[in-house]
Amino acid sequence: MSNNPIKMNKLRQIIRLYCQGTGTKTIHGMVGTSRTTVKKYVHVWHRLGITHDEFNEKR
Predict the structure, then answer these.
(1) Alpha helix positions (H), the chain
(2) Residues 3-59 pLDDT 10s
(3) Entry pTM
(4) Which partner for 37 in 6, 33, 46, 50 could form a disulfide, CB atoms 3.0-4.6 Å apart?
(5) Backbone φ/ψ region at 51: left (φ over 0), alpha (ψ -120 to 50), beta
(6) What domains appear along the chain, each with residue ranges and CATH number?
């Protein structure tokens, strides 16, 4: 298992799919990352307390 960060476009895709109600198991299959990675980044996003729109504005 590597500890490399994912690319921003992949992170945006994970957050977008999660906000659309897609489950982590489905997201990991669509994006090509592990379920653990999906859960980790969704958790961090929740902890930041920003909305999906705010996240997309910070380009």
Answers:
(1) 8-19, 24-31, 35-48, 52-57
(2) 788 999 999 999 999 999 999 999 999 999 999 999 999 999 999 888 877 777 765
(3) 0.82
(4) 33
(5) beta
(6) 8-57 (1.10.10)
Q: Which residues contact 14 (CB under 8 A, 6 or more apart)?
A: 6, 27, 31, 33, 38, 41, 42
CA atoms within 13 A on the CB side of 9: 1
Alpha-carbon Rg of the chain, whole angstroms? 11
Cα separations (Å) of 14 from 28, 52? Answer: 8, 11
Question: Residue 5's Cα: distance from chain center in Å?
Answer: 12
